[in-house]
Amino acid sequence: MSSPTPEDPSTTSTPIRVLLVDDDALVRAGLRIILRGAADIEVLAADPADGAAGAQTVATERPDVVLMDIRMPVMDGIEATKRILAQPDPPQVIVLTTFDSDDLIVQALRAGASGFLLKDTPPERLVDAVRAVAAGDPILSPSVTRQLVDRVTAGPDRDRQAARDKLTVLTDREREVAALIGEGLSNADIARQLYMSVPTVKAHVSRVLTKLAADNRVQVAILVHESSRSD
C-alpha cells in the first residue's frame, strides 16, 4: 500500500497533535470543538491561557502545531513564539488574530510563525490550515494578507522601482510563484493554479525567499505589491 501524502492528511495514521494557547476560555472551547471534528487531529488536553504557560506546555507535551493568540497576559504570543521555536524540534506555530494590530502580526511572522489566521476563519479553513502547516506548508489568510500588505505599503515614501529591481533576480516561473504568494495562496493552491506538484512549488518558494532575502511569505507579498503600484 502506498504511503499517504501531505495532500491526503486524513489517511495519516498518526494524528496531528495541536495545542491551543489563548487567554479567552470561550475561544479555546470553540477551537477545540472545531478541531475535534477532524479525525486526523488530536487537540491536547492542556489548556494554557498565556504565552509563558504555552511555551512550558510545548516543552513537555511536544505538539505538532500550536494555535497562538497574540495578545495575552504574562507573556504575549510573539515572545512565546520565539521561546517555542528556540526549543529543540519545535512545532509549527499559527498566530490567531482579530487583525487589530498589523505591527504585531509582522513581529509574529518575524519571530518565525508559520502564518496567521483570523479568529473568525471558517472551520473548514482552520482545519485545512492545521493540516497544511503540519505538512510544512506555511499558511496565510488571503484577506488578511491583502489588508496587511495594503497598509504596510501605503506610505508615500515607498520605492516602487527598488521593489521592481529586486524582483529582477527571479526567473519567470519564480515571478509567477511570487505573485501568487502575494495573493496569500498556500503551496497547494499555487500548485493547482500553475499545474505543478507541491514539492516543486516548495522548491520555487524556497528559492524566491532566498533570492529576495525574505524571512517569510508576507515580506515577499509586500515586495510584489509594492512593485505593482501605480504612480
UniProtKB/TrEMBL annotation:
Domain Response regulatory: 17-134
Keyword Phosphoprotein: yes
Regions that span the bilayer: none
BP-aspect Gene Ontology terms: phosphorelay signal transduction system; regulation of DNA-templated transcription
InterPro entries reported for this sequence: CheY-like_superfamily (IPR011006), NreC/VraR/RcsB-like_REC (IPR058245), Sig_transdc_resp-reg_C-effctor (IPR016032), Sig_transdc_resp-reg_receiver (IPR001789), Tscrpt_reg_LuxR_C (IPR000792), WalR-like (IPR039420)
Domain spans labelled HTH luxR-type: 163-228
Keyword DNA-binding appears in the UniProt entry: yes
Pfam families the record matches: GerE, Response_reg
Modified residue annotations for 4-aspartylphosphate: 69
MF terms in GO: DNA binding
Assigned keywords, A-Z: DNA-binding, Phosphoprotein, Transcription, Transcription regulation
Protein name: Response regulator transcription factor
Species the sequence originates in: Flexivirga aerilata
